[in-house]
């Protein structure tokens, strides 16, 4: 509880700064807890997957025998970001020490399967799409993998419409609450169940019922809105269950659509309740996006925290739909991701919420992060080899509610 209070106070008192490659050396002797967070956004998941492809290649140039999941202590995702998270963290059926998918393969996955997922000829009962293909392909890819079997810790927010409570699926919880150790396919289907687009999803695990829709989600209103930034959920889990020395967060968005129409008080004063609907959705989107970036980015002023947010803040409205699976649109989303790499790092002044360009490009920042991640992994592997039976650093950070040997042993599979 104290960690959560600290988290809230810290958010309230800080102003975001830009990502600084000067804050951390190339490594810090294995003492940096590393986090990857991926937004939702339907087919727009192509954008963060494309950005991750650059980081994946940079890391493989340093260590060809490791995947992204080996470098991050936690990967969090909402909506389509949950699916990317699962594909990155699920062990390959051919080699359980390696990831099932690379980011490049995930981009191809979207292009090949997106038209089948968002198929207008397959409407659901109360939703635009029946979700059947997505359910089947998710089960086929993730097979019988359960949450406890992922290559690293994952955090996926969802919402139970029967209990009216958020449900955060997290490796940190499964020892104390075994019913959270669900099939990863069930978790991903739940996270993708954006109301009006895809139907709610029911499943049962360890005797507990789940009646699920996507968490941290605005797509229930309009398919061009942002689908939620899961960084807050991931950080809440980290602060609850870990002590930490330093934290590095890479947060990837799926694009914030442009708003062409300009609104003012005089115009708004004449609107009928029906006229308010679309502008209100736009306002909710902007408030949600800005506050999420305030919450996560406010930590950046702390010397123990590094935060890089890569997001397209002016996504062309032609490419803003979560469900536009035309070949031209999907190729354009991939191009958007590649263009982001060459853009300057963005900084947000949270006194004014204005966005300005920082120093260096996103690609350069990712290359610096690759140096940090590689250095951290090398230190941990060296530490592990030197200490007979010793635990990796991020395992020793854990502060379980029940300090039993079983609780400590659970995370031994989560190594960098």
User: How far is the first residue's CA from the last residue's CA?
Assistant: 28 Å
Q: Report mean pLDDT, rounded to a whole number.
A: 78
Rg calc: 21 Å
SSE order in H/E notation? Answer: HEHEHHHEEHEEHEHHEHEEHHH
Helical percentage: 25-40%
Tally of DSSP helical segments: 13
Roughly what fraction of the amino acids lie in strands? 15-25%
Query: Regions with pLDDT < 50 over 5+ consecutive residues?
Result: 1-25, 217-227, 390-413
Decide which structural class fits the backbone.
alpha/beta
Shape: globular
Largest sheet: 8 strands, mixed
E-strand count: 10
What does this structure look like?
The protein is of the alpha/beta class and 416 residues long. The protein is built from 13 helices and ten strands. The protein has helices at residues 2-13, 46-62, 80-89, 103-117, 132-142, 184-192, 231-241, 265-268, 277-297, 327-342, 362-386, 393-396, 405-410, and strands at residues 32-38, 74-77, 153-160, 165-170, 201-205, 208-214, 246-252, 305-310, 344-349, 354-361. Strands 1, 2, 3, 4, 5, 6, 7 and 8 form an eight-stranded mixed β-sheet that branches. Strand 1 (32-38), helix 2 (46-62) and strand 2 form a beta-alpha-beta unit. The two termini are 28 Å apart.
